[in-house]
Write a structure and sequence with these properties.
The structure is a homodimer.
Chain A (H helix, E strand, L loop, with lengths): L3 H5 L12 H14 L8 E2 L2 H8 L3 H14 L2 E4 L3 E4 L5 E7 L2 H7 L4 E12 L8 E11 L2 E11 L16 H8 L4 E10 L2 H6 L7 E11 L2 E10 L6 E5 L3
Antiparallel strand pairs in A: 1-3, 2-3, 4-11, 5-6, 6-7, 7-10, 8-9, 9-10
Helix pairs in contact in A: 2-4, 3-4
Chain A binds a DNA duplex through α4.
DNA sequence: CAGTGGTCTAGACCACTGC
DNA sequence: CAGTGGTCTAGACCACTGT
């Protein structure tokens, strides 16, 4: 499958003449992959051969192939070459907008309430020993739309202890005051517990979309937040186009 | 805020000497942004100035800045320059693995059942007039773990009508036989309806994570699929690191 | 019209890897 | 040790946009 014949025995690649050359090359190679014409594991022509075929420089070809590798459509190995990725899995990039921006962008009136603010000790959610625990409610036109439970690690964000968070929202304060270098997101569905349902004006047991986020600065935990969206209506949308 | 003084009146950028130069430059600029030292809207030095500061070529600086723009950390405009993005929103990239791979990767035994196969007419889910409707169940160690409802547009994928899908899974067949160029994903939470709950061995009303996916080839719809994961336990994980 | 980012060239050297 | 991709250079021209 990786012999020389399979490398070159394939339909000629065509450029469509639209947009930058690197984008055309990217599409030209992505097309037979998503079309299934090039099977997983199949070899892609060498960069230097593609340069000759498209009458261009290696930087341009390399840019196209690097993007395809980032898209997960191909895998690249020195000395061996580039190959169609073994598992053409889907992947979706979700923008997770600030709830205030989201409400106001859609023409709603945003408001915010701090429900609980309490210092806690003892490791509970993978953070350090001393944390600030907050519960907040976000409202759209006066109706609860998002419940936020947040733990802020006071080792990672010492200045948080001086904030009362009654007016400034934790997310906004953290974004502007605490550096972070890595975030991990997890999505799940839960039946709203009685207490949560009451705070969100839902029936107990209603399905809610839950987004959890952990944030680090280098290896220091900064915050863990659990966002419970009101009701099943809330949706997150992501798209992917290899072209 | 965009005057010349703010462009240059900031802490000196430092390279850490680790890895490729473009990655070092990317980190050097990402750091003060995620740290909040450079506020949204603030100007980033011009490419040619960064070349001088880091004693490198414009291609290398441009590569770093282009990556930062793709990350959503900066926005770039010709003639004006580059600026810290107005809304430092989080975004997460979720890999949506094939369920079979997922089960087997975790050491489970995978099996598959086709429950319904039926030709349908009339637009129902944003597809064309003639569709093939499938309901499948995916099991982990014999226990239902995912319910798949799928509509395949027979204009977009005519060959589907000759497949019975009793043995070959729709996802696998489509990936290998039908080209696609764009996919759109949507996640939500629902209370399992009685019929769904029965098929997934859940109590009626149990919260389920639902992933919907629409796929196009150019502007032609190919398929719409609604994946209902069994129970709240299922989670999707995504990470983001600007470094 | 001046200056920015967007793109491209025609080379180069290096790291890694299979032979 | 030969050949691949990974990275980088020192230029260039173009498109677009604010003045």
């Amino acid at each position: 499958m990786t012999d020389a014949s399979s490398r070159y025995a394939r339909a000629s690649l065509r450029l469509d003449g639209e947009g930058p050359l690197y984008a055309q090359i990217r599409r030209a190679i992505a097309a037979p992959i998503v079309a299934g014409a090039w099977r997983p594991g199949e070899a892609i022509p060498f960069e230097r051969d593609l340069c000759a075929r498209f009458k261009t420089s290696r930087m341009t070809v390399n840019r196209a192939l690097t993007m395809l590798a980032n898209d997960g459509l191909i895998v690249r190995t020195r000395r061996k070459g580039s190959f169609v990725a073994p598992q053409p899995s889907h992947h979706a990039s979700f923008e997770i907008a600030d709830i205030r921006d989201e409400v106001e962008t859609e023409g709603g009136r945003y408001s915010y309430e701090l429900l609980t603010r309490r210092l806690e000790s003892g490791v509970s959610v993978g953070l350090g020993d001393r944390t600030l625990y907050l519960v907040c409610r976000h409202l759209r036109d006066g109706a609860p739309t998002l419940l936020e439970e947040r733990w802020i690690d006071l080792a990672g964000a010492p200045a948080a202890v001086d904030q009362n968070f009654a007016d400034e929202r934790p997310n906004a304060w953290l974004l502007h005051n605490v550096p972070w270098t890595r975030a991990e997101h997890q999505m799940s569905a839960v039946n709203a517990a009685a207490a949560v349902a009451r705070l969100l004006d839902l029936e107990s047991g209603a399905a809610c979309l839950v987004l959890e986020r952990r944030t680090w600065r280098d290896r220091t935990p900064v915050t863990y937040v659990k966002l419970t969206y009101a009701g099943p209506a809330h949706k997150l949308v992501g798209t992917f186009e290899p072209a």
